[in-house]
Predict the structure.
Amino acid sequence: MPKPTTPNKIPVIVLTGFLGSGKTTLLNQLLADKPKTAVVINEFGSTPIDQDLLQQTGMPLTTLAGGCLCCQIKGTLAPTLKNLWMAWNQAKDKPFERMIIEASGVASPEPILDTLLRERWLAGRYRLQSVITTLAIPSAIEQLDNFAEARAQVAWADALLLTHADLADAEQQAALDEYLRLIAPATPRQLAMPGAYRADTLLAQASPFTRRLPNANPLPAHGFQSLSLHLQQALPWPQLQAILQDLLARHPTDLLRIKGVVYLSKQTEPVVIQAAANRLYPATALPSRPADDRRGRLVFIANGDIERLAEEIRQAFGASIASNAIKLHD
């Protein structure tokens, strides 16, 4: 039976970063580069103000206020995205070419990614392009040390934008560089000097679908694919490490990226998992989050036979995952 026609997917950029780290400034530059962009802004307070800081007017704008996305996403974000797509699909002249979601500064991006990647209706119509996280150099280390949400924002980033460089000294910048080499060694980062960086360059770095391994074979015409995995059970680190290293060894050129946040047995806090360029980096701990569902999440980005990779993952993880815990995304 032929597959049903897949509608054009709208690319989505997710902006994260702790409070005051420069997300809205970055959003303004992205809108200046490409005005035909729909924007969804989430704010923690009940009175939204971020939309008043946007320099670009006339684009579709939705504000979700009164809470963080981590606790309201199921009830507000999914219907918002559905309504925006319906309006886009019905319009003869498309009102936007992409979407940007600016997350609350006190929210982890995990629920946003779950909604985009795992809700079937949305996943068939939206394509996650990249996750960009802003970090204010003078305050970043303190925030990362004290707030689990800040660490989660870095853990899920495809690229990091280091802001407020004009307010930081060389020692603070060097300290943050060293800190990020430990907790996010595979994530590209860019320094945001006023007027000295371009958002489109950052997007090129951030997109997980444009990364290539050195000396890799030419890419097939269909491009990259990804799959997301939910772990129902915590595993010992030696077992998880062995599984991931084996998958990397089996797919030295086509498994381009692994990232996620998981729980390990006999350990209360979650850990960040990252692999790139056929290298698995040491796991780094995140502070515990009381409202967490304690389910591990991993994303695999590949250039090759994604169905074969999914089957190998099912066999490797076995009883640790449910039958519907793997989702494929093109």
Remarks:
- Residues 46 and 66 are 4 Å apart (CA to CA).
- The chain has a mean pLDDT of 79.
- The chain is about 35% helix and 25% strand.
